[in-house]
Amino acid sequence: MDPETLIRGGSADQPVSTDAAAGDAGPVAKEPIVPSTNTPHRSRRSVWLLILILVFLILNPLLEKDQMGEAILLVSMYATLISATRALSEKTRVRWPPTLLATASMLAMAIAHFFPYRPLWIVNWSILAAFFGFISVGFFSYLGRPGAVTDDRIFVSVSLYLLLGMLWFSLYNLLEAIHPGSFALQSTPLSSLPRGTLIYLSLATLTTLGYGDIVPVTPIARMVAALEAVAGVLYIAITVARLVSGYRGDKHEAM
Fold this sequence. Notes:
Elements: H1 3-10, H2 18-21, H3 40-63, H4 67-92, H5 96-114, H6 118-143, H7 151-178, E1 183-185, E2 188-189, H8 195-206, E3 214-216, H9 219-254
Antiparallel strand pairs: 1-2, 1-3
Helix pairs in contact: 3-4, 3-7, 3-8, 4-5, 4-6, 5-6, 6-7, 7-8, 7-9
């Protein structure tokens, strides 16, 4: 009887690999599935985005009253817009909408900086709010994708939280440009508020901290502030749930 017949007749239920037929007996071990990890290049862009957002938020209340400081803040905002556009286009392959919005926003900011007319500021803050809204939706969609919880996802989740604050910061400036006196500082309505004050209001509302030293006065401003508080709470709950779910799924696949 030839060797192939002996191998086939050894077990009718168990398949035999070609290696076993060649004389290498024993079960064939399956290679473990290694989850894909983020590359250092992608993590580096996410880190740079987070750093640029933090730099803008910190410098804004320090430099907004100085003419040279205004120019530095303008450059800082440009860098943030470019970094956010590149990070989103890399992660979601969406290039043209954020690029067009960022370009339009930078042009509007530059024109409004040299010609500070009220209609120009309204256009500027409208485009900027649209840009931050689009970027936030794109990053939130990226975080909802299945996959391992990498450093890149952690950096993006933190950056997205701060981008939500900048989105509402743009909306508050838009409301203030359309209807001056929409916010009151220490119960005293003002004709205009510094941008640093509105960033402070946005972050305090997003975290539901609410010191109460600056409050919305008009009905639309109150509703926008209330929506920011709701968005801050829901973002924390949904993002943590997504990250935990991704971590458990990755751990289950590794086992």
